[in-house]
Amino acid sequence: MTTVAVQTKVVHKTKDEAVSNTNKKKVYEVNQLNLWYGKDQALKSINLDFHEKDVTAIIGPSGCGKSTFIKTLNRMVEMVPSVKTSGSIIYQGRDIFDPKFHVEELRTKVGMVFQKPNPFPKTIYENIVYGPRIHGIRNKKVLDEVVEKSLRGAALWEEVKDRLHENAYGLSGGQQQRLCIARCLAVEPQVILMDEPTSALDPKSTLKVEELMEELKQQYSIIIVTHNMQQAARISDKTAFFLNGEVIEYDNTDLIFSNPRDKRTEDYITGRFG
Ligand SMILES: Nc1ncnc2c1ncn2[C@@H]1O[C@H](COP(=O)(O)OP(=O)(O)OP(=O)(O)O)[C@@H](O)[C@H]1O
């Protein structure tokens, strides 16, 4: 008897086909990105473009490389000594792996918010002015303005304006996460990377952060890793589905969720695995 191997059809669209919304400017172009931790390859031939003022969700099962990918975009992944990469990541026309592109400059433009809120053990005010001070801003009036603007931008001002000089650890988890977003806004980034920013929050705080993202995308590009399919569907314009270190499908979010082209995407978003 002959065995016929039935293979799932692989739909690796080229990135220009992948996302039809081409009238927005590209912020990042990721070309043939590979990444290894020692001998283990965690990212395989990733080709993705990210656009200005879009929210892009990165979804996929545990261990598929989502965090590794997002941490590659601001070169944080290099903190792991065994990491090697190939390919290119073009940010605003410049390759972030080019030694002339200083990582500090990149991280000024590309902020990051983590899974667990991580305020500094300082006052709310000091948390916000930390970055601007490093960038040489000393004038108190200017710093006060940055604090108010950033906290307003993160929808936290009204809740904390009378306790700016209290320790940030006194805030609730959801408030701490919005403080971390405010801290990120204080250095006026262009892109905000978010690695499961609401997974440690209760539903009410999650909703606040999601509403905030809706506001923020008027001004910033947001790339968010999430395990929460409803969240990806609610908040993102585009979605990339990762599996085993590869991008299986990347498209406008409504298409990914209503009409996925690859069986594996469909199985994942309908909860058959992951
Ligand atoms: N510091 C590290 N050293 C070695 N291997 C690592 C390291 N960090 C991640 N990996 C490996 O790289 C692969 C991708 O991991 P990564 O954390 O990026 O996945 P993920 O999709 O974000 O997972 P999760 O959803 O569980 O957070 C996994 O096989 C993981 O074991």
TrEMBL record:
Database matches in InterPro entries: AAA+_ATPase (IPR003593), ABC_transporter-like_ATP-bd (IPR003439), ABC_transporter-like_CS (IPR017871), P-loop_NTPase (IPR027417), PstB-like (IPR005670)
GO terms under cellular component: membrane
Every ABC transporter domain range: 25-269
GO MF annotations in UniProt: ATP binding; ATP hydrolysis activity; phosphate transmembrane transporter activity
GO aspect biological process, one term: phosphate ion transmembrane transport
Gene3D superfamilies reported in the protein's UniProt record: P-loop containing nucleotide triphosphate hydrolases
SUPFAM superfamilies: P-loop containing nucleoside triphosphate hydrolases (SSF52540)
Pfam families xref list: ABC_tran
PROSITE patterns in alphabetical order: ABC_TRANSPORTER_1, ABC_TRANSPORTER_2
Keyword terms: ATP-binding, Nucleotide-binding, Transport
PANTHER family named in the record: ABC TRANSPORTER I FAMILY MEMBER 17 (PTHR43423)
Name the record gives this protein: Phosphate ABC transporter ATP-binding protein
